Amino acid sequence: MTRLALARALSAGLLLLASACAPPRSTAPAPRSRSTELLRMGAEVWVIARNHAGDTALVSVAFKDMATGDSVLVDPHEPLHAASTMKVPVMLELFRRADAGELSLDSTVLVRNEFRSIADSSRYALDPGEDSDSSLYRRVGERVPIRELIEHMITRSSNLATNLLIDLADPRRIAATMAEIGAGEMHVLRGVEDGPAFRAGMNNTTTAYALMRVMEAVAGGRAASPAASREMVDILSRQQFTQMIPAGVPRGVRTANKTGDITRIAHDAAIVFPPGRAPYVLVVLTRGFRSPRSAAPAAREISAAVWRYVELNP
């Protein structure tokens, strides 16, 4: 990329936070510094996002290198429907409550398919055909451990498990935790398929920056105990939907991610564990693509660009 193109990319909305690097004193050519490579990677990510989004869609990106603290942010504070990425804060809050001794993750919850809208208290049920995990509906009337419901909610993105757990996690407490970890731009208000609330504009929303802070807190053990954090990472590592960020890194590299999609929304948030170094967090949020499948290439290409940078800067 030419310097002119790079400057245009940066002026068009790329926010790049890099470690300062003093200019070389020698007149001899100097090797590229990490900050220079970070700048190049940030510009490449911006171009990928713009090329895929065009004039009709949005691709929002947040990257945090937990080894160096370096970040790349593209439209990071644009609020979007959170879709199923809101399930990560639900999990996080449940683990925090278990850490505090307020509940046991081995205690059980009665599986039911009847819920009340936060808008008007009307009753509604979930459609198994609209849920990516239909297995739990066969267990209505049974009691299932919270830990098992969390597994369904994260690894298979079960809507039924989410609705069973969100009241237990308590949206008010989730909001307090989001503020505490610097993710105040993420708002988890309700469960899934609450039609009256949706029509009233009472939706779960996030920004790429806020979701990055959530994943960073999980990876770094800042929002729960070290043991709880490790368990949450293990759950995220068993994710069954890996067509976006994980598909952009080499096979065999450990990833821990959570996707989310609804109509014209497709997101992914991941912790990536390069061998022999600290992990990094990457979030790619999209709006305006026809389907998750059409949005996935943007996330894969961005993920691959970030991987190349990390591989060259261990």
Description:
The protein contains ten helices and twelve strands. With 314 residues, the chain is α+β, with helices and mostly antiparallel strands. The N terminus is likely disordered.
What's this model, at a glance?
The protein has helices at residues 3-11, 34-53, 87-99, 146-155, 159-169, 171-180, 195-199, 208-220, 226-237, 292-312, and strands at 14-17, 58-65, 71-74, 80-81, 108-110, 115-116, 123-124, 143-145, 205-206, 254-262, 265-273, 280-287.
Shape, per Cα inertia axes: globular
Q: Spans with pLDDT under 50 lasting ≥5 residues?
A: 1-13, 15-30
Radius of gyration: 20 Å
Helical content band: 25-40%
Which structural class should the secondary elements be placed in?
alpha+beta
Across the major sheet, the strand order is 1-3-2-12-11-10
Distance between the termini: 23 Å
Count of runs of 4 or more consecutive helical residues:
10
Largest sheet: 6 strands, antiparallel
Q: How many β strands by DSSP?
A: 12
* Relative strand content: 15-25%
Pattern of helices and strands: HEHEEEHEEEEHHHHEHHEEEH
Q: Report the mean per-residue pLDDT as an integer.
A: 91
